[in-house]
Design goal:
With about 190 residues, this protein is an all-alpha fold. About 85% of the residues lie in helices and about 0% in strands.
Length: about 190
């Protein structure tokens, strides 16, 4: 429950919202789940080994830079999209991002974005004091997945109301906000 609450309004939840507005919910959920399982496992391992001593600042800055790159890519897609090209671009995008590869990209993106995040650090802290590592890993994973399911539902609802260009612009804004917030968090934590 702690991880679920901590994830609400988090940058990775906004990232999930943006991704689910553009791709199939099942693919996004698979990627988020695998990324969550991996980051929770790393968090538990770090908690067991380090007991809460992590270089939070540099990790937050790195994650923020990655999110801003995604913002720039979304902005580029928004600028290239027009009403006439939108349908053709969707066909091309579906061919380029075969679901087999897309979920891996989402999983890696989610994993990297969660590094040094408050939910990761909370999981590390819990694992450093609670030696039931399996329960901590499962609890962290379920909390993150449940919270991001809300973002997937919201992303699907938004995608039905906004044009392709508007969705790319919205995704760019979300990624920019999340990236800047992560960098700020990293700088202020140094």
């Amino acid at each position: 429950m702690l991880i679920f609450i901590a994830e609400l309004g988090d940058k990775t939840q906004f990232m999930t919202l943006a991704l689910s507005s553009r791709y199939k919910a099942t693919i996004v959920l698979l990627g988020v789940t695998l990324g969550t399982m991996a980051v929770s496992l790393v968090s538990v391992a770090l908690g067991a080994m380090l007991g809460g001593v992590l270089p939070r600042g540099p990790m937050s800055i790195g994650a923020g830079i990655i999110l801003i790159v995604f913002a720039l890519l979304s902005l580029k897609q928004a600028m290239e999209t027009s009403k006439v090209e939108e349908e053709a671009n969707q066909d091309i995008e579906n061919k380029i991002h075969h679901p087999r590869h897309l979920w891996v990209t989402i999983a890696v993106t989610f994993f990297v974005a969660e590094l040094a995040d408050k939910t990761m650090l909370a999981t590390v802290a819990i694992a450093s004091r609670d030696k039931n590592y399996l329960a901590v890993w499962l609890g962290s994973t379920m909390g993150l997945v449940a919270s991001n399911c809300l973002a997937i539902i919201a992303g699907k609802a938004l995608s039905q109301k906004l044009s392709g260009k508007a969705m790319h612009m919205t995704a760019a804004a979300i990624f920019t906000f999340a990236g800047v917030a992560s960098i700020w968090q990293g700088i202020s934590g140094l």
